[in-house]
Design goal:
This protein is of the alpha+beta class. The chain folds into two domains: 187 residues, DD-peptidase/beta-lactamase superfamily (Beta-lactamase, 3-Layer(aba) Sandwich); 118 residues, 3-Layer(aba) Sandwich (Beta-lactamase). Helices cover 31% and strands 15% of the residues. Strands 1-3-2-13-12-11-10-9-8 form a nine-stranded antiparallel sheet, sandwiched between helices. A two-stranded antiparallel ribbon has the order 4-7. A two-stranded antiparallel sheet has the order 5-6. A hairpin with a 6-residue loop joins β8 and β9. α1 packs antiparallel against α11, α2 runs parallel beside α5 and α2 crosses α6. The protein is globular, with a radius of gyration of 20 Å. The two termini are 31 Å apart.
Length: 359
């Protein structure tokens, strides 16, 4: 398939990103795509890059295999576990507004839960709760929709009986379960749905109008068709776990969020959310990686400041986001395939941070 290559020369209404062309960067991106992407497996891919000079977006392939429609920076993708950085952003904002506290225990919101686990421990993956509840499989009736039948009642029923195998707050264990419970607690404290709270406290301020759990009809028309090895798969639907995996977004919206974290706009919001970048526990998958709040904090080289990364996957999409405030750089990679694009995101991110040469 011939690669379709697009750079968007435009201005966002808000914030004022300036899109430009950089021939060296263009060549780098095209070479990475040619080398790393099999369009039979990954029909479409969208990329966003912020560096100190400009913002760049690129798109390749198709929004749906065979439709000849190239994605763009407003194409909507599932972002899977990248949702967690927004869940903790919301948590930190409403904690700052005294709606709840990091030190609150889960039993303060659901009295049947007796474990001495705090909201902070849910957020930094040290709760001791498993990745998925042990009763999850019994509710899974459709392999293409694993979360659609799992309710708040199912989650609380599991957690009420769950006995921690190690003390909470001591060790990193990545947990969708913890974020599912955190979602329910945020809704309980905030008095609204998770989607509504995200819009009211975060997305409306950043003009992130296409980042949602539930899409309207117009947004649905811009949703990239997800793909797995067995062919096309539907976007996941949820009755819980929204705060663990449930958001859909675009390159443009994610660039607005990352640009805020680079200090380009909404500086008060940026200052509030900086605590989400603090190190908490060493991860169990890379020696140079720690849990933050939502984010994974990496120390890539000696004497180089930390960088912040998260990836996400569903059955049909993959997402990579990374930022380095010290160098004013960020990368977004979204695809409509289950196949990982982390290597692509990491190559771009490493290049613009460690061996980039501008002409």
């Amino acid at each position: 398939m011939k690669l379709i290559y697009i750079i968007f020369f435009s201005l966002f209404v808000y914030p004022a990103f300036i899109f430009a062309q950089n021939e060296s960067l263009d060549k780098l991106i095209k070479n990475i795509i040619k080398r790393e992407v099999n369009f039979k497996e990954t029909p479409g891919i969208s990329i966003g890059i912020i560096d100190p000079d400009s913002t760049y977006t690129y798109s390749f392939g198709e929004t749906r295999k065979g439709n000849d429609q190239t994605p763009d920076a407003n194409t909507i993708y599932e972002i899977g576990s990248v949702t967690k950085v927004f869940t903790t952003a919301l948590l930190t904002i409403i904690e700052h507004k005294n709606v709840l506290s990091y030190g609150d225990t889960i039993g303060q919101y659901f009295s049947e839960l007796k474990q001495p686990v705090t909201l902070l421990q849910l957020a930094n993956h040290s709760s001791g709760f498993p990745k998925l509840p042990h009763n999850f499989g019994s509710k899974e009736q459709d392999a293409n929709q694993p979360y659609i039948n799992y309710t708040q009642e199912d989650l609380l029923s599991f957690l009420e009986k769950y006995v921690l195998t190690k003390p909470s707050g001591e060790k990193y264990t990545y947990s969708h379960t913890a974020y599912a419970l955190l979602t329910e607690i945020i809704e309980e404290a905030g008095g609204a749905t998770f989607d509504e709270l995200l819009q009211n406290y975060l997305f409306n301020h950043l003009k992130m109008n296409d980042t949602r759990i539930i899409l309207n009809d117009e947004q649905q028309s811009r949703l990239a068709q997800g793909n797995s090895q067995g062919g096309e798969v539907p976007a996941w639907e949820y009755r819980s776990f929204e705060g663990a995996l449930g958001l859909k977004s675009t390159v443009n919206d994610l660039l607005k969020f990352l640009s805020m974290h680079l200090g380009d706009h909404h500086k008060i919001l940026d200052e509030t959310l900086r605590k989400n970048f603090e190190r908490h526990h060493e991860s169990n998958f890379r020696s140079d990686t720690y849990s933050g709040l939502g984010w994974h904090v990496q120390s890539p080289r000696r004497r180089v400041p930390d960088v912040y990364i998260h990836v996400g996957a569903t059955h049909g999409c993959y997402a990579f986001v990374a930022l380095a405030p010290h160098s004013h750089t960020a990368v977004v990679v979204l695809s409509n395939s289950k196949k990982s694009v982390s290597n692509i995101g990491q190559m771009i991110f490493d290049t613009i941070n460690f061996n980039w040469r501008r002409k």
